[in-house]
Amino acid sequence: MVTWQADFYHHRRQQAAGRVLWELLICDRNRSFQFEASCPQSEVNSNWVAVQLQLAGGGNLPDVIQVFRPQCLGLIEQAGRSLGINVEPTRRTFALKQWLQEKQYPTVVDKPPPAPLPENLWGEEWRFATLSAGKVVEVFTEQPIPILVMPEFLQPINLGLASMVSVPGVVIYGGRQSMRLARWLQEARPAALNYVAGAPDGLVLEAGLVDRWILVTFTDPEVVAAGRVYEQRKQESRGLHFLLVQPDDSGMTFSGFWLLGAED
């Protein structure tokens, strides 16, 4: 499957006449292919983007285009539809962001304050947990889990983690809401789950391109201490962590499992 990463944005550059210049940057995952084009803001539309995609491909269009910037997602989606290309919103456009940084262009996008998780989705209990890196894939690929998300680039072996490194995570016991919560999370597209100190402390789920959700808040000193250990272990596991949703603590059934990573 051929995958491109694309960005289309104005980076405070001005033409001689004072018009805002938009730049389209396209690359593949290892940057063996790169393409760039620009146009004044008055010409910005999905048709222009579609034409540039055709020029970039030279008759060989990709199967998927990954986009991390919300401001250009709609335009690229429209262009992709006209050409039969799937467009995937994702924060994980490592090669493209590296290229933007080399050009000294910003890769950070504005994010809204975190919103509370809808009450009808929350489960019964939750806890911090750990798994050894050598067991993460083995344990869950052998289970009949309805929703299982393990991107190859996040698997411990591909991160170079030793098998005994502790991978931290959070387990939610959803009870009757377990599958409903798992389906909602899958639609939200989890990216990272962070402990955030504050008053109170809490766990914030980074999802989609810019969405942020408060999963839980707490003030208990022992839980606060566990939250700090959770973040420390994430550093030791190169950002790798997980989220597991299951009905109860029997260990017999699971609803959803996601491998998550540090934001790039």
Automatic annotation (TrEMBL):
GO molecular function annotation: RNA binding
Span of domain RNA-binding protein Tab2-like N-terminal: 3-103
InterPro entries, A to Z: Tab2-like, Tab2-like_C, Tab2-like_N
The RNA-binding protein Tab2/Atab2 C-terminal domain, residue ranges: 106-260
Listed name of the protein: DUF1092 family protein
Source organism (scientific name): Fischerella thermalis JSC-11
Organismal lineage: Bacteria, Bacillati, Cyanobacteriota, Cyanophyceae, Nostocales
